[in-house]
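Issue 218. Parser rejects a valid record. Input:
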Amino acid sequence: MNPRPTLGDQHEMSFLDHLEALRWHVIRAAISVVVFATIAFFCKRFLFHTLILGPSRADFWTYQMFCRVGKLFGSTEPCADHVNFIIQNREMSGQLSMHISTSVIVGCILAFPYLFWELWRFIKPGLYPHERSNSRGAVFFVSVLFVLGVLFGYYFAAPMSINFLAGYVVDASIENQIDLQSYLSTLTTMTLSCGLVFELPMIVFFLAKAGVVTPEIMQVYRKHAIVVILIIAAIITPPDLTAQIIVSIPILLLYELSIHIARVVRRGDAARLNEKLARERAAEAAQTAIGPPVN
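Output the parser choked on:
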């Protein structure tokens, strides 16, 4: 078996050499996060008033959309002129620390494509040529799926969770005064969870390439997958049936897309195997036609 291509100039690298290469990838990735986090930090009004605190106001895009959809069906129940809770800060340095931590989180989200690209640059030289060919476009598709997941989490999963939990009361005499840290934790958890869940097609792609997952296996266990998806939706959303259905639908579609991806991967592998066998047969036929070498 041919040795794997190695990092750098294709010579065998020691463990310390690999650590040195990894160190520079990590440094560049960290710098990108710091740059985006700094930009987010100085865009304080947009970051908090528009972006972070948007789901806490009744004029948020998601609430207005549900209101318009409800009116189409003759219902005004989804419409509200205010969100029934107050966000408050109870610590002296609470707002400053939240400002810094939120800027870092936003910096990581914005820098995610570059972070994954740096990780890919470290991994790619250690792959076989056919493995590099099979994973072409991985950075692009991973980044696109992550961005779509984050947008879905921010505009659908997080607002529904916030609106349900903030409006839930056990007694009318109790006023919901939500701590700033609790609000941010709910928002970021919902958003980042959806970003990671949306990576399902790429995970299935690499598992199918490795021969671990086949479309038949995914079809056989489809019912089990639906149960797992509903459980995941129940975890990342409040105990509200509408919210769970809205979150479950795109994940189910991603699962069906993953089955198709696994099927395409298998067809491609079979086509390459048939092509290789055809070349070997052609070479054997040519050798037979030429005859044995003359001494």
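Fixed in the parser; the record now loads. The longest helix spans residues 241-290.
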